[in-house]
Amino acid sequence: MRGLASVLPYLGPAFVASVAYIDPGNYATNIESGAQFGYTLLWVILAANLAAMLIQSLSAKLGIATGRNLAELCRERFPRPVVWLMWIVAELVAMATDLAEFLGAALGFALLFHFPLLIGGILTGITTFAILALERYGHRPIEAVITSLVGVIAGCYVVETVLERPDWNAIARHALIPEFAGPESVLLATGILGATVMPHVIYLHSALTQHRIVPRTPAEAQRIFRFEVLDVVIAMGIAGLVNAAMLIMAASTFHARGLSDVGTIEEAHRTLQPLLGPLASTAFALSLLASGLSSSTVGTMAGQVVMQGFLHRTIPVWLRRGITMLPALIAIALGLDPTRTLVISQVVLSFGIPFALLPLILFTADRALMGALVNRRPTTLVASILALLIIGLNLWLLWTTFTGSGA
Amino acid sequence: MSEIPLAHILVPLDGSSLAEQILPVAAGLVRACGRELILLHVLEPSPPERIHGQPHLATAEAAARYLDRISRELAEQRVFCRIAVIAADNAAVATVIARQARALGADLIALTTHGRGGLRGLLFGRIAQQVLQQAERPTLVLRATERSVSLLPETPQHLLIPLDGSPASEHVLPFAWQLARCLAATVTLARVVPTLEHLSFSESAPAVFLPTATAALLELERQHAEQDLQHLAATAPAGLPVTVVVRQGDVVAELAALATDVDLVVMTTHGRAGLPGWLAGSVAARLLERVTIPLLLVPIGRQETSTI
């Protein structure tokens, strides 16, 4: 890389991509974490982001080197029962992802128009079907609208954080020093990890070369891989900055004022009041709605990639759409607390990460499979340690949840 | 007879001038590359009185008279025809056409399709589609338009062959080379590489997260496409004028634009999902809606039996 000048042309597209990483799952985990624990969990955002950058790059690399996606390679190389298990986990993860996106959009509708949540859910269902139908026929203008809505709010959070003059020393300390504050903080940390790494995106990254050409020479493969790393690092970097800003604003709006229990998605628009004033609640609801709708569409496509890869089977997109929105509608109908449900769904994602990460490490370390793009030893080592840490965190969470013992 | 790829061309006619619109091209093809047209009318058990706003052929006698008249007019142009009137009984018209194509040894089915003209129009459009799926042989389709029907044979002089980079799409080549040679036509091999905005919906999901990598990959694909087309053009028989063109953008729109300079599109098609490339989508159907020239669709797997 030859300095900033060589990266500038990519900032635009990468910024747009960063918005795709920010979904209602992030909103919920950021707001909850900031409200309940102040800056304490900032380090999780940083760590999860670095982890995600590594994992997504590995996945992208796998796609370029092999021309096949992660799910397809698993099908080729693992015994059938393992493939089925992995597929089931991937579908559960897809459902958890969609639960969050759908719930986020439903909340967006409810907050925007002051509807009951169930009406918001039904509206979300109708809207997502409409988007699918339009996109199938090649109408993509909605994407631009959605991206700009989320982008504006993302920008607002970053600007606010700067204007707020927070305690940068405390921020730096908490961003670098790992620390928990009881079982609930472990739960939220796991949620942040799930919301940042997003297992379905791991599968998607490996599907870039799907049905298209595969680089023919090591030089071409390296070139495409460099662009992928650039995409991942820039987009995730921006997304991480926004997530951190959201957490910081939640900390100063709720935690600093002793309002830890009020820090829910329904109240989260208050975090925007310092900058947007009376517009805050509308702006927040709109961006929540937009991020939910757009991520949901991407999630549906990811689900198709995963199923096609694992089973060599597809179901109609609208059918998948219909099935994956059911848990969300049920959760709404049961009257579950939306913020809590969102956080738990992200924890489920975190439990799904190892199922994608372990085969990913296995494959990318295989020289026969990867050719010139095979992992260097340190890469495999770091990724393996990361996998152990994630599994450890998940187990620790289970332990603290069932025994109730603190960190 | 490898020199005659289209010896027998089956032309189903329902008595309407819309259906007759396929006749000039079918006649042109058979005169240059074949032996005879088989003019077929399928008698429906309870035919409507009018079709496409014209009196329908209600009886076997009326149908035979009609086909005979067409046959005599074409004979004046040195195009030779056989006529057949078949009762559909309870089978669907498309099934009867496909079955007759096999029974009569047709190498090609030629028919008009259109989505307009009320219910019958819709049905006829559907018949064309069903024939494509059931016939397992090359099918020449032309979208009916407001044009005056002439029976003067038109011989295609410039063929457009869209390829998508998949081996499946290239199956059409041996057939196309042979066709071009007996028509003494020129050939354009075309490939459209999408841009970021024109990726298909399912391909756009990874592109959401990896925009610059996707753009770089598509640029690489464009470069490869140039090389691949040159390579494929080299497989043409000696003396056949072949040009190659790579465009970027929306597949259907770009192909439609290219089609304005040619008079026949020859491409692979299939009835199943799950194949790579844009063949798997509905490119042929969407292209047909955009162009006024005929499409010669060759089903995958056909090349083993129809070519050298």
Automatic annotation (TrEMBL), chain B:
Claim: Transmembrane is one of the keywords in the record: no
CDD domains the UniProt entry points to: USP-like (cd00293)
Domain annotation UspA: ranges: 8-143, 157-299
SUPFAM superfamilies assigned: Adenine nucleotide alpha hydrolases-like
Pfam families recorded: Usp
Keyword set, alphabetical order: Plasmid
InterPro entries reported for this sequence: Rossmann-like_a/b/a_fold, Universal_stress_UspA, UspA
Keyword Hydrolase: no
Similarity section: Belongs to the universal stress protein A family.
Record-linked PANTHER family: STRESS RESPONSE PROTEIN NHAX, UNIVERSAL STRESS PROTEIN UP12
Protein name: UspA domain protein
